[in-house]
Amino acid sequence: MSDPQPVLVDLTDAPAAPCAPQQAKPARDWPPVIIHGETIDREIERLADLPRPANGRRRVMFVHPAAPDPGRGLTPGVQVTLDVLLPGEETVPVRRNATEVNFCIRGGGTAWVGDRRLEFGRYDAWNHPSWQICRQANTGRELQARLTYSNAALLEMMRVNMVEEDPRDDGVAEASEDAGGGSRVALETFTIGEDGAALMPYETLISPPCVPSAALHWPWTTVKENLDRLEALGSDYVGRRLYLLFNPRTDRFNGTTPNFFATLTIRPGGIVDKPHRHVSSAINYYFHGAGYSRVEGKRYEWKAGDLMVSAPGWAVHNHASYEGDPVYELTIQDQPLNIYMESLLWQEDLSLPARILGSQEGFATNRRGV
Ligand SMILES: [Fe+2]
After folding, report:
1. Residue 135's CB: how many other CB atoms inside 10 A?
2. I want to staple 262 with a disulfide (CB 3.0 to 4.6 A). Which of 22, 80, 168, 256 is the partner?
3. CA 32 to ligand 1 centroid distance, Å
4. What is the pTM (predicted TM-score) of this model?
């Protein structure tokens, strides 16, 4: 058999217009979908009724109908799974090069992430740094259910999603000397011109500055206390009443993981957001209250328990809560990755131009005045 041949695509004088921000319609290829709370409840019951699997993981993945395989995501880069553990059960340890956020939607238990052990309850969130050995146990009396969000969909597309079940070693090679008997040497990266262009030696390329990545825990009771104070901003406030579950490891890239952020939002009854759009795509999990979203002109109703692809990248959207109970929601959005890639076009006001957040000055709210 002959080797695969590359495809040559002649783009001479090809129009740039279909990709212009004002014409792009990515939501047509990847429309919003809702996994209703009833479906999630049914899956929890189905998983709970199965005989205990060998690796302990009772798990289902929610895949967007437009997702490729490999690349099985709910948004193009983010994979979402639902895990169930019965009281007394625990999972076999696993290690992945994906980074994750876990969100407990029922019961509670214990998670071991690297050398950290944390006790979690309903609506707690925590992150899994990459390549740390992780396992979970249901140490409570209730059934435990967790949503896990990871960048595995993106890694699948890149054909490098690495998973090791029950790894026997900690995977960390001896730090002082390498296998070839060499020793570390600090060589200078030096600038070669007036504009900052520099040259970096190979020795730095294979040993970049190493910053430890830690598992962090955001307990719902503490987050909720802080969120509920934002209700006092009143109905004139034009921003979102939320906190980003910030991992300082992600620096100026606004992440819970290097790939995406998780925010927890309170939406008092009767709040209607202003339509806006951003290149980052969003998945919402509503766990209290009810409301609707308008995405590219189409209305979608949602309520507590629903998981929704609420904002395909660059789709014009806004969300609204119905009068009455406040809405609480978890949002996962691949903003940090897009800030890092300098691709995060954001249009906060549709009558004004979009900006590349992280490289250009961002937007403001009326918080000072309310
Ligand atoms: Fe948005």
Report:
1. 16
2. 256
3. 13
4. 0.94
